Amino acid sequence: MGVIAQQKGRTPSVYVAVGGNLPRPGGGVVSETFAEAAAWLGALGVEPVERSSLYVSPAWPPSDQPDYLNAVWRVEDGETAAARSARALMDLLHAAEQRFGRQREGAAANAARTLDLDLIDYRGLVSAGSPVLPHPRLEGRAFVLLPLAEIAPAWRHPVSRRPVADLVAALPSDHGCIRSAAARAD
Question: Which end of the chain is more exposed for a tag (fewer CB within 10 A), N or C?
Fold first, then answer.
C-alpha cells in the first residue's frame, strides 16, 4: 500500500526514535553507540539536528534484559524529499542498526538490541505501506512520547491530530520511563 495522506500546514520534520540495551560488538556503552550512529548517519546526509535527553525504560515484556536507553532525534535529510523517500530513509536506518550490531534475522520481536532506530514521523506523512507512518505503536510508548515532547512540544499525531502533551497525559502512571541523569543523546 502507498501513501494515504500528508498533513498540510505542518513543519516538515522527521523524527526518529532511538533505543538500545546492549553494548555493540567490541564493547562500549549504549549512549556511545547512539553518538556513533548519529555521526555515521550525519556523514550520509541524515543529520540529527535536535536530540532529546536520554530516557531509561524497562524491557517489555518484563524480563531479565537490561533496561533500555531511549531518545528521539529530529533529523534533517540532506537529500530532497523526492530523492530519499520514507522507505529509503528507513532502509538507511536499518543499515545503521546493522552496522552497530543489531541482529534482526531470527531475533525475537522483543529481543535485546544494540541499536533500534524507528521512523516515528516522516514530515506528517500517513502511510499504510512500508514503512507504516506514523509509527503504529507510538501512542502508547512512554519511551517515545516523553523524549518527543521534550524536543517537539507542538507536535501533533498526524492521524488523530492529538497534541503530544495529551498523548503523554494519557500514558499509564506506571510506565516506568524516566529521564536519565546522563547527557543528551549525542
Answer: N
Asked: is 3-180 a CATH 3.30.70.560 domain? The reply is: yes
Q: Which residues contact 162 (CB under 8 A, 6 or more apart)?
A: 156
Chain segment 73-97, per-residue pLDDT in tens? 999 987 654 457 899 999 999 999 9
Write the single-letter amino acid at 130.
S
How many CB atoms sit inside 10 A of residue 52's CB?
24
pTM: 0.88
C-alpha cell at 139: 501512542
- The three-point CA angle 173-174-178 to 5° equals 95
List the grid coordinates of 147. 523524549
Please report the DSSP string for 134-149 in residue order. S-TTGGG-HHHHHHHH
The domains of the chain are located at 3-180
Task: Count CA atoms closer than 13 A to 85's CA, side-chain side.
Answer: 12
Q: Do β-strands 116-122 and 14-20 pair in parallel, antiparallel, or remain unpaired?
A: antiparallel
